[in-house]
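In the lab's daily routine, each protein ends up as an entry in a very long ledger. A line of letters takes care of the sequence, but it says nothing directly about the fold. The fold becomes a row of whole numbers, each drawn from a learned catalogue of backbone shapes. The protein below has been through that process, and both of its lines are reproduced in full:
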Amino acid sequence: MNWQGWYTIGVIAIVLMGLVRKWGPPDYILMGGSLLVGIAGVIEPAEVFSGFVNPGTLTIAALFIVAAGMRETGALDTVGTWVFGRARTEKAGLIRMAGPVAAMSAFFNNTPIVAMLMPVVSDWCRKNGISPSRMLMPLSFMAILGGTCTLIGTSTNLAIDGLMKETVASMPQYTQALRPIRLFEMAYVGVPFVLIGGIYILFFGRRLLPVRQDVLQKLEASPREYMADMQIQAGCRLIGQAVEEAGLRHLPGLFLTEIVRGEEIISPVGPQQRLEEGDILTFSGVIDTMVDLERIRGLVPVADEGYEVRAAQRRGQYLCEAVISPRSPFIGKNIRDSDFRAYYGAAVIAVHRGSEHIHGRIGDIVLRPGDTLLLQTHERFTRVHHNNPDFYLVSDVEESGSVRHEKALLCTALMALLVVLMVIPSVEVVYAAFIVAGLMVVTRCIPAGTARKSVDWETVFTIGASFGLGHALDKSGAALSIATLCLDVFAGFGPHAMLFLIYVLTSVFAALVSSKASAVLMFPIALAVALSMDLSPRPFIMAMAFAAASSFATPLGYPTNLMVYAPGGYRFTDFTRVGLPLNVLLTIVATLLVPFVWPFD
């Protein structure tokens, strides 16, 4: 091995140590490693930054916009209801999520599946008081496992199929052994992968998952409790549902204290109490969950009498918090009679008053100095009233824009278009993602400014920065030298041992660089091993395909792992602790099943 190979191995070791010890954000550490091998001349500048123009990276960036469009129109709530149903516990959520994710990933590229479902899973976790770190890694793992079931489940399988076709052109005597992979041919091993992997995640891996960014801890850190009255209007999905069935029973940090139905006051509210049109629901709780309530179509505040009839005009409206000062002209007046909306152009959604529990209707509350109001207003309100002496403090509430429910059907149609485009072989996934993301903006399912902000740039940069190290490991000859050395040592141990070693080597390279890069690197090695032993190359290549397409031990091994890395608040060692046992388990399964499905002779 030349000095470039040793240098690359040293840089990768430093990068891995930095990721394990959290010396900084993952994207900074990975970018630093790529720059080090680039500055040393191991790879060209174009290779250092190739990950940022890679179709896979660009696809993920575009899909963040598509997912944001679904959130803005409320279509994401429909997807969440379909995936999770009435699941309220972590175990029930995992069971409900695992099947659909694996099934969809078998027929659609698993990267878009994870991009679409990440916000769905995060929202469900927040509503049920579950840390996202308990669900996002299983989401990635089940998508990876589902992708191993068919030829089109992952781009890695397609890449290997392409390599086999190219090899047949130069080695026609192996036409039968290297025939193209049929659509469901991989299911013989892929389905056992899904079943065994799902059982492992549900009963064993779940115990190893960390608890990070705990929702309840975040709520306790900001315990300001508001009181709000919300009325159920015609067409609201809550009509006819029981309180528990509607998901209003166990919202984190939020309590349904009473229901006003005409002259009747229902308190306390039981879980089986049915909701009717016109009911006024009184909630007490924290602001994050108040935002969730305000986004439910047909559930609107009743403090402002004009608010309900102008629900269609709420587009472009946002939530903000404002603390009333003693100089406010509305001190000593109730909200309904003060004409607060006409004076400030803002509707009062909820009120917080220190540690005091406020009783009565929102409109009847008499304002005092120090009261904190949750306001529905235009986006310029904070800038206009930032120095207004009527308020001690004015601040925006993040992610509180009004939901464009009227665009939900259109957004769903665009998602269907994305699915259709993805299954057309002649259309690249990156084109499909950008076409649909662009249509989301053009049709105003999502504002252009919101679309820009919706891209998780940390995730995009983390994925893009990892490509440089993969190029260096390949170009320096380090990967080939390591593989050749290992194969020479195990050369006399028979075909099963060699197949096992090829699987392990492919898994190691996938964990350090990327799944597709490891497949391209190991393909000629697997082919050479089979030919040197006068055996069919197909079992060795298929073993390599499964190893490359199912990497769990590090976040670098697969794009979906990198996608959930930052949102889940994971550490590098979390993937090793949960994913390495799964890798070992699947290595044993593949070593036993692959020769049975694709014999050596």
About this structure: The chain has two domains: 3-212+458-594, 225-285+298-396. Strands lie at 226-232, 254-261, 264-266, 280-285, 299-301, 317-324, 347-352, 372-378, 391-396. Residues 572-597 form the longest helix (26 residues).
